Amino acid sequence: MEKGLRYRSRLILLFIILSYRPPLLIANQPGAEEKDLVIIGGGVAGYVAAIKAGQEGLKVTCIEKRGRLGGTCLNVGCIPSKSLLNNSHLYHQILHDSKPRGIEVGDVQLNLQAMMKAKDTSVTGLTKGIEYLFKKNGVEYIKGTGSFASEHEIKVQLNDGGETSVVGKNILIATGSESTPFPGLEFDEKRVVTSTGALSLEKVPEKLIVIGGGIIGLEMGSVWSRLGAKVTVVEFLDQIGGPGMDSQIAKEAQKVLKKQGIEFKLGTKVVSGENTGDNVKLQVDSAKGGKPESLEADVVLVAIGRRPYTAGLGLENIGLELDERGRVVIDSEYRTKASHIRCIGDCTFGPMLAHKAEEEAVAAVEYIKKGYGHVNYGVIPSVMYTYPEVAWVGQNEQELKSQNIPYKVGTFPFSANSRAKTNLDTEGFVKMIADPETDRLLGCHIIGPNAGEMIAEATLALEYGASTEDIARTCHAHPTLAEAFKEAAMATYSKAIHF
Ligand SMILES: Cc1cc2nc3c(=O)[nH]c(=O)nc-3n(C[C@H](O)[C@H](O)[C@H](O)COP(=O)(O)OP(=O)(O)OC[C@H]3O[C@@H](n4cnc5c(N)ncnc54)[C@H](O)[C@@H]3O)c2cc1C
Ligand SMILES: *[C@@H]1O[C@H](CO)[C@@H](O)[C@H](O)[C@H]1NC(C)=O
Question: Which positions form S-S bridges (predicted)?
Fold first, then answer.
């Protein structure tokens, strides 16, 4: 009896020894093991797909060259910008908005280094968190640059030297995007900066010019304006916030930001620029035939948009197409013309947003695993994290007007909302747009405190095809800012109570 047991445990030990193979060896031998899915890029698109694939039981490898997971969003995008926005707002509020609240503060000092450190702590914690989730879900993580050797084989230039290759039944391209450069102004990330440089300036510039009045430009402009820079935003179009932002909301946002000290030059084109080493000079031209003007700043942030990034991927080796804007061409199931190679996130079509990339990641893995998936592109919220925030989902008024689609509008100002009044924070309003016949919600646009959180309710309503009466008859807790949302719905199908 005892002997038998010992014999069996020896057998088990032998089995363990025999079945042990160092995992790296497998990855190093081309073709040694075919993965179900190989992902190029460990940004939001890539890392979410990797985790989802692991959860679905697929053998999955994720290749990332940055040395850290999370891509643009976690490392130099959404997360660090929100850290600086939050803390610069607090600083600004202590300086300018504490007295009326009955708080007398003494000598307030900015410690920019410590503020940057707080940002880095958030970023590091989050990227490490993804590494943990990779381990938990059995995702193999290779630090290196991937490129197509053939339709199924990815060659990887490892970050710490050397080379390996991975073979995948399915391949997912998730290589993201990069800042679009301004012709003639080279990025040195000190005086002429992308958003990445603007997230790490060593001191507060005296004068900052932001080229481009989109979301990224206005967020970074807000940060440095609050910390003491004189900020000028030069925008080619006649409206800030980009084309998705409702024009009425955009006007209000501009008014509020102007009151905070940001100067705007709309309908103005930057013709040329020169980095002298001491400062940057820009020639600008008013689109409406005004006089050309010369502007000067210590730092210029170029925020004219982002473009897909596929350099060095070797797409030409396998004959994959890009469109005229550099986006990888895909069908509605994210397939390139080689049907086992899919592409999602910033490097293909659609809004360049982290949560859009995340939805596509889940859907792409579902297509691979189950043959079906879905993303509702009509219901993707946008948020500008300035103060107050601007958030929207669905269609805006100018879009509906230009398409001759009939609509009705209801609005409600935060100045009539009890919670906003108690918080001494009453700027902005909620605007709802609905179908005049069916009352179905078509779009919701908010400028105001917490707009970015509040838009989730509108997003859910839109996803479920709610009418504004459905929203208005849903009980909302009192006193909350969300009551403004309910009242705007009331104003759309009937009349608001408190306004
Ligand atoms: C300043 C700023 C603020 C932003 N704020 C927000 C926000 O608040 N909310 C929001 O939704 N979006 C925001 N965005 C946009 C958001 O960051 C992107 O939409 C998101 O990161 C896209 O994810 P992705 O995975 O497609 O691309 P990325 O995040 O760019 O990831 C791609 C990754 O692929 C890697 N890679 C590229 N080529 C290779 C290769 N050949 N081999 C290996 N690895 C490779 C890159 O190193 C990168 O890490 C912001 C962007 C910026 C710049
Ligand atoms: C900043 O973060 C704090 C702590 O979570 C939060 O209470 C506050 O509302 C945030 N401020 C802004 C402007 O988002």
Answer: 73-78
